[in-house]
Amino acid sequence: MSQGESNVLLKPALLLVGTVIAAVVVVFALNGVLAYLGIGAVGPAGPQADAPATPQANASGSGESAVAAGEGGVQKLPGTWPGEKWYSEDLREQEFDYKDPTAGEEVQFQPKQMNNSTLPDNEHRAELIRYGRDLFANTSNEMPENVGNDLSCANCHGGGDLPTTTGMVGQDIDMIPLVGTAAGYPEWTGRTQRMRDMRQRIMGCFLRSMNAPGAEEGVPEYDSREMQAMESYMVWLNKGTPSQRTPYWRHIEKPEGDEKVPVSEVNPVRGAELYLENCASCHGADGQGIEGQYPPLWGEGSYNDGAGMGRMYTSAGFIREAMPYGAGHTFSNWEDVQDVAGFMNAHKRPHLPRQPKDWAAAGAPDEGIYYNRTQQRLGYDMNPMTKKLMLAGMPIDDTEVTEEMIPEDTSRYDQPLRNESVDGSWQTTWIRTYEDVGNETATNQSATNETATNQSAITAQGAVTSAMEGDGDSRAAG
Ligand code: HEC
Ligand code: HEC
């Protein structure tokens, strides 16, 4: 039919095209020959002569004397290095005098400004970095579908509203700074016996600190624009720092050795007194803070029970360095700060469905007081801090705590009090109970119903999410 006709017409056309192609090929071939004969000497020869330069010399441009590598310890960085001045070296060696009103001012701090000289020329990249900064500073408003509480990254990774930093989250030396930490990725995580990259680390903070499972969409997609933006911002923060070195400010300084109060001896009832004195003015006697100003410390709007901040020694380290806000380092001793941390983490908070699967092999560390297996190992039938508050007849929800509620004799709660029993309604609350979690993990270790469901809901990101679990070392997950 009409197809036959058009075929007839097509043939001459194809012939013509074929001829043109053939001609072009011949011209190219000729060109090639000419190029080979004529200008062949120019191309590769020049650069190649210099190519086998010394790779070692390229690896470290800083010119500092080499620090012995492979010792396994954290390498200390100098406070300054060519071109950029960042933080005072002795920031963390200062004396922490109790209630020293000038303690905050001793912190010398030279943050990086965000401007044309520090941003890349490419406008798209620069835009991504600026967007990343906004996401860090204002996470729950910018990404409501991925944030299941009222927090922003900046609430823990401070600097978001410091006038000196013009809102550069992650540049407050006292609040889990993120400067230079991008160089540490990808990194090995003992917990899951695998490598994880920076986006997976950020996703971990969403999963836990931002309680993403409680949000509409949960953890943001690995390759989303938001994730790229936050990664870009971290890389921007890293620019100018020597790579391959761990900054001395990385990781919260937790209590070590003698500084540690054994978990069963931490006294959250005494912590309540200290809380009213030092924290309640901002975070409220109910721990709920003030929206847009002071973040909530417990309850539905706070981090969940799988977050790094929910661990005793991690939160104590954070509080000691960062709180009271603007006057960090004012607690005289580790005991005080651990009691406050115990009080804060005695309270109810959102539950992370996969929490029982954390630390599957090694077992949760003692400081993981929201973890059922820690509780069991320490001989408790619930979070030991929660137990002590309940024994003292004090609220563990967002009821305001008052002086009158605190018993006269707080020293009784220095004891473990393991075997006393509490009555109350804690078992029916939205923080999962020992019975819930205990039965699940005991009878069905490998695949609890809830974690299995949760897993399959995010199988698209399977490998990604499995790298978001807590670390196996003493370092905190976010
Ligand atoms: C002067 C007000 C103020 C006081 C007092 C204060 N904080 Fe904060 N706290 C803040 C602010 C503001 C932030 C968020 C910082 C930011 O966004 O840059 C914060 C953040 C936090 C965070 C991390 C975010 C979260 O909600 O989990 C914790 C934990 C915390 N404070 C605990 C404490 C404890 C414990 C005390 C008492 C020792 C205390 N704070 C005293 C203002 C205060
Ligand atoms: C409730 C407090 C809290 C909030 C909110 C929070 N984080 Fe974290 N984050 C932590 C803690 C605790 C650590 C572990 C600190 C340490 O290593 O000692 C951490 C660590 C990190 C690290 C690893 C830093 C390093 O040195 O490698 C990154 C990256 C990070 N958080 C990103 C984020 C992002 C992005 C957000 C917001 C989506 C966020 N965090 C929100 C508490 C928080």
UniProtKB/TrEMBL annotation:
Domain Cytochrome c residue range list: 127-238, 266-348
Compositional bias segments (type: Polar residues): 441-464
InterPro entries from the UniProt entry: Cyt_c-like_dom (IPR009056), Cyt_c-like_dom_sf (IPR036909), Cytochrome_c-type_DH (IPR051459)
Pfam families xref list: Cytochrom_C (PF00034), SoxA-TsdA_cyt-c (PF21342)
Entry keywords, A to Z: Heme, Iron, Membrane, Metal-binding, Transmembrane, Transmembrane helix
Disordered as annotated region, ranges: 46-83, 441-478
Compositionally biased tracts (Low complexity): 59-69
MF terms (GO), sorted A to Z: metal ion binding
SUPFAM superfamilies according to UniProt: Cytochrome c (SSF46626)
Keyword check for Transmembrane: yes
Organism domain of life: Archaea
PROSITE patterns given in the database record: CYTC
Gene3D superfamilies: Cytochrome c-like domain
Membrane-traversing stretches: 12-39
Name used for this protein in its record: C-type cytochrome
Species the sequence originates in: Haloplanus litoreus
